From TrEMBL:
It is found in: Cell membrane. This is Polysaccharide chain length determinant N-terminal domain-containing protein. It comes from the Bacteria. It is a multi-pass membrane protein. Residues 14-90 form the Polysaccharide chain length determinant N-terminal domain. InterPro entries: Bact_polysacc_biosynth/exp (IPR050445), LPS_length_determ_N (IPR003856), P-loop_NTPase (IPR027417), Wzc-like_C (IPR005702). It comes from Flavobacterium hungaricum. NCBIfam families: eps_fam.
C-alpha cells in the first residue's frame, strides 16, 4: 500500500476535518462549561452475618451452608422502592435549591433564606422550576418556561396563589435582616415523589466489596456533594434500624413457630410412616434389595431365552432356504444346529436315500424303475423335511412373541426400580429429616427464648460518607479527547464510505486493476468552454499539449506498413457523454498540425456531435447520403479548408438514418475507408458507444488502432469489464485507453501537469529601482 498516496487522498479534504474538529471540540468545550459537574460520594459499611447465625432456627453445617457473607438480601432491601421512598420523604428530595449566578452554571445550595410550604401532597407536585428573588415587599417568583411572574407580599407565608403548589416565607435567620439577600436570586426545582424516587435509584449504587467479605459500598452521584453525603448517612441509619426490627420480628416469630411445629410433629411423622407402608404394600416390596436382585435375575433369564429362540429362528430360516435351493442329486446339510432331533433324523435319512439312489444309478440307467421309485421317495422326503422345518419355524415365531412379551414385562419392572428406590429414598429422607428437626426445634426454642430479650445491631460503619471532588461527569479530558476522536473519525468515515461506494474511474490504477495489459495513451484535462477549441500548431494550452502527447503515444501503437497507406484510428467509449467526439476532434487537429493529411469522419449516426465543433448544421448531407447511395462520390460530401488546419478534412454524419446498423454493414463504408487510405495519412473515426449500440463493432475490424475514451469521475468501473470482454472476443483490436476530463486541481493519482504556459519572466526589482521605471 502506498501510504503517502492514501494520506494525500484524505488530506485533500482537510477543510472538512478542520470543520468537524471545530464543531465537535467546540461543542464539547461548551458542554463542559454549561453542565454542572457531577461528583461521587461513597461510604463503606460492614454487616456481620456471623452474628445473625448465632441463633438460627435450624443448624446447618459448613458443607451444607451457602455463603455466610452473601449480602444480596441487604442489597435488595436498600435498593427497594419501599426503603428508598422513606429516604425521599425524610430528606425532602422533591425540592432542589440552586443559587442563580450570572454564568453558564448554577451552584447547588441547601441554605436558602426562605422556607417552602407545599400546598399539595409531595406525590402530586408538578415537574417544574421557579426562580425566586427576595425584595423589599416580599418575594418575586418567576416560572422560566411560561415567563409567568408571581408577586408575594410580605414575608410571613400566609398568601396563597392558586397556580403555585406552595407557600413561601422567610426563614427565621433571614427574617432578622432580609436586606442581606436582596441581591441574590435562587432557583427551586420541584418534582413528585415518584420522580424523586426514580432519580435517587438512578444515582445510587450498592455493591459488595470484592476485597472484604460482608462489606457493602454505597455510592451516590449528584451535583451537590453535601446533599449526597446526607443521603448516604440517612440510608445507613434506616438500614441499621431495619435490620434491628427484622431481628426482633425473627425472634418473636421463631418462638411461635417452634411451639406450633413441635405440636404438629407427631402427626407429620405418623403420616410419613403410613405413606411408606402403603407404598411398599401396593408395589409388593418386602425389602428393596431382595426385590432388585429377583427382578434383575428374571430379566436376564428371559433375555437369554429370547436370544436363543431368535438364534433358532435364523438357523431354521437358513435351513429352509438351503433345502429349497438344493438340487435333486445334492445332499442336504445334516448339521444346521437346530434343536429338533426329528428334523435331524429326517435329514440323515434323506442323505442315506440319496446315496442309495447314486448306487442304483451306477448299476442302471435313469429310466430304471427302481431308480425312479427311489427318486420319487426322495422328493416326498424332501417335502416332508420342508414341512417339518416350516412347522418348527412357526413354533419358534410364536415362542418369540411370548418371550418378547415376558421380556418387556421384566424390563418394565427393572426400569421401575430407580423410581421406586427414589420414592422410598425420599420417604426415608423426609422421615429422617423430621426426626432431626424435632430435636433441633426443642433446642432452638430454648435458645430463642434467651436471645430474644437482647437484640444487637450487626451493622458497622467502616468509612463515613465522603466525596471524591474529581468530577465523574463531565470529565474534561475524556470529553475533549472523545470529541477530538469523533471529530476526526466522522469525516474519515464519511469519506471512506464515499470512496468505498464510488465506482467511478479516478486514476490509472483503477483501470489497471481491471484491465492490466491495456496501455494508457494519455490524459485529457478538464477545460472550460472558452478553451475547448484552443488547439493550433503554436498553441500552448492544456488541451494542445495533452493531445500532442496522445498523438505521440498513438504512433507507437500503429502497426508498421510496407505500403504508403493511411492508418485508421477509431475513437469509441462505453456510454454517451465520455468525450469520445471531443478527443477525436482534438486528435485530428493535432495530427493535421504535424503536416499530416487527416480525414475526420463522424460515424455516430444516431447522435452525431462533430458538427457542433465546426459550426455546421446537423442536417447537412454527409456520410449517410453516401452509404445510402453508392453512386454518389463520398468526396463530394467532405468539408475542406477547415479554419483549424488546412490539412484537415471532415466528413460529417449527415441526416440521422432510420437504419444506421444496416448502412454501416454494407460494402460502401469499407470502400470509403480503402479509398481514403490512399489519400490521407490518418483516418480518424468518431464512432458510437460500444455498450449502447452494436454499430461500432460492425466495422471495428477496419481500424488499425482503437482508442477507448474513459472519463475521469464519470465512467463506471463496471464498463471496463465490458471493454475487456470485447477485447477477449477480438471484437476490438489494438486497444489503447484515454482518460478524459481530468480535473487537475482535485484529481489524485496523477503526478504530472498538462501543457505549459509561456509568459515573459518578471524580474523582481529592488525597492530603490522601482521609482526609476
Amino acid at each position: 500500500m502506498d501510504f503517502k498516496k492514501e494520506f494525500l487522498k484524505y488530506f485533500h479534504y482537510w477543510p472538512w476535518f478542520l470543520l468537524s474538529l471545530t464543531v465537535f471540540v467546540g461543542a464539547a468545550f461548551i458542554f463542559i462549561k454549561i453542565v454542572p459537574p457531577t461528583y461521587e460520594s461513597s461510604a463503606l459499611i460492614f454487616i456481620d452475618k456471623k452474628q445473625e447465625d448465632k441463633s438460627p432456627i435450624i443448624t446447618i453445617n459448613a458443607s451444607q451452608k451457602s455463603d455466610e457473607d452473601d449480602l444480596e438480601e441487604e442489597i435488595r432491601l436498600v435498593t427497594s422502592n419501599e426503603f428508598l421512598i422513606n429516604v425521599v420523604r425524610k430528606m425532602n428530595l422533591s425540592f432542589s435549591y440552586f443559587e442563580k449566578e450570572y454564568s453558564i452554571q448554577n451552584n447547588v445550595v441547601h441554605e436558602v433564606p426562605f422556607v417552602l410550604i407545599p400546598t399539595v401532597s409531595n406525590d402530586l407536585l408538578p415537574v417544574v422550576s421557579y426562580e425566586i428573588k427576595v425584595d423589599k415587599g416580599g418575594f418575586i417568583i418567576t416560572e422560566p418556561e411560561s415567563k409567568t411572574v408571581y408577586t408575594i407580599k410580605g414575608y410571613d407565608g400566609k398568601q396563597v396563589i392558586n397556580d403555585l403548589p406552595f407557600r413561601i416565607r422567610l426563614s427565621s435567620k433571614a427574617a432578622k435582616n432580609p436586606a442581606d439577600y436582596f441581591e441574590s436570586e435562587y432557583k427551586v426545582s420541584l418534582e413528585p415523589t415518584s420522580v424523586a424516587l426514580k432519580n435517587l435509584k438512578a444515582a445510587l449504587v450498592v455493591l459488595p466489596d470484592e476485597n472484604s467479605k460482608g462489606t457493602l459500598q454505597l455510592s451516590h452521584t449528584g451535583v451537590s456533594p453535601d446533599r449526597s453525603r446526607k443521603i448516604l448517612t440517612e440510608i445507613i441509619f434506616l438500614l441499621d434500624k431495619s435490620l434491628i426490627q427484622n431481628k426482633q420480628k425473627v425472634y418473636n416469630n421463631t418462638v411461635t413457630y417452634l411451639k406450633e411445629r413441635i405440636k404438629n410433629f407427631a402427626k407429620e411423622k405418623d403420616s410419613i410412616e403410613s405413606i411408606k407402608e402403603q407404598y411398599m404394600q401396593n408395589n409388593d416390596i418386602a425389602e428393596l434389595q431382595t426385590y432388585v436382585v429377583e427382578e434383575t435375575a428374571d430379566r436376564s433369564q428371559k433375555k437369554v431365552n429370547s436370544m436363543l429362540n431368535e438364534k433358532q429362528i435364523v438357523l431354521a430360516s437358513y435351513a429352509i432356504s438351503d433345502v429349497k435351493k438344493s438340487g435333486p442329486t445334492e445332499s442336504l446339510g445334516a448339521d444346521y444346529n437346530i434343536e429338533a432331533p426329528g428334523i435331524k433324523q429326517m435329514l440323515l435319512n434323506y442323505n442315506t436315500k440319496l446315496m442309495d439312489s447314486q448306487l442304483i444309478l451306477e448299476r442302471a440307467q435313469k429310466n430304471n424303475p427302481t431308480y425312479i421309485a427311489v427318486v420319487s421317495q426322495m422328493k416326498i422326503q424332501k417335502q416332508e423335511i420342508l414341512n417339518a422345518l416350516e412347522g418348527y419355524l412357526s413354533f419358534l415365531n410364536q415362542a418369540n412373541k411370548v418371550n418378547k412379551t415376558e421380556q418387556s414385562i421384566a424390563d418394565s419392572k427393572v426400569r421401575s426400580i430407580p423410581t421406586k428406590d427414589k420414592v422410598l429414598g425420599n420417604i426415608n429422607s423426609h422421615l429422617s429429616m423430621k426426626e432431626e428437626t424435632y430435636v433441633a426445634l426443642l433446642q432452638k426454642k430454648e435458645e430463642a427464648d434467651m436471645s430474644g430479650a437482647i437484640v444487637e445491631s450487626n451493622l458497622k460503619t467502616l468509612n463515613l460518607p465522603e466525596t471524591n471532588y474529581s468530577a465523574i461527569y463531565p470529565k474534561p479530558k475524556s470529553f475533549m479527547l472523545g470529541s477530538f476522536m469523533f471529530g476526526m473519525l466522522l469525516p474519515f468515515g464519511i469519506i471512506y464510505g464515499r470512496f468505498f461506494l464510488d465506482t467511478k474511474i479516478h486514476s490509472e490504477e483503477d483501470i489497471h486493476k481491471i484491465i492490466g495489459d491495456i496501455p494508457i495513451l494519455g490524459h485529457i484535462p478538464k477545460i472550460n468552454n472558452n478553451e475547448k477549441l484552443d488547439n493550433s500548431a503554436t498553441s500552448r494550452s492544456y488541451i494542445a499539449e495533452a493531445t500532442r502527447v496522445l498523438a505521440s503515444n498513438i504512433s507507437y501503437l500503429l502497426p508498421k506498413k510496407e505500403e504508403s497507406r493511411g492508418s485508421v484510428i477509431l475513437f469509441t467509449s462505453s456510454i454517451q457523454g465520455e468525450g469520445k467526439s471531443f478527443c477525436a476532434f482534438h486528435s485530428a487537429i493535432t495530427a493535421s498540425t504535424m503536416n499530416k493529411k487527416v480525414l475526420l469522419i463522424g460515424i455516430d449516426l444516431r447522435n452525431p456531435q462533430l458538427h457542433d465543433y465546426f459550426g455546421v448544421d446537423r442536417n447537412e448531407l454527409g456520410l449517410t447520403a453516401y452509404l445510402a447511395n453508392k453512386s454518389d462520390d463520398w468526396k463530394g460530401f467532405v468539408y475542406k479548408d477547415i479554419k483549424f488546419s488546412k490539412n484537415l478534412d471532415v466528413l460529417f454524419a449527415g441526416l440521422p438514418p432510420p437504419n444506421p446498423s444496416q448502412l454501416l454493414t454494407n460494402s460502401n463504408f469499407e470502400t470509403l475507408i480503402e479509398e481514403a487510405k490512399k489519400e490521407y495519412d490518418f483516418i480518424v473515426l468518431d464512432t458510437a458507444p460500444v455498450q449502447v449500440v452494436s454499430d461500432t463493432l460492425n466495422f471495428s475490424h477496419l481500424a488499425d488502432v482503437t482508442i477507448f475514451v474513459a472519463k475521469y469521475d464519470y465512467t463506471d468501473k463496471n464498463n471496463l469489464f465490458g471493454l475487456n470482454n470485447f477485447i477477449k472476443k477480438k471484437q476490438l483490436k489494438n486497444v489503447g485507453i484515454i482518460i478524459n476530463g481530468v480535473n487537475m486541481k482535485t484529481a489524485y493519482g496523477y503526478g504530472m501537469n498538462y501543457g505549459y504556459k509561456y509568459q515573459e519572466a518578471k524580474v523582481k526589482k529592488r525597492w530603490y529601482q522601482r521609482s526609476t521605471s
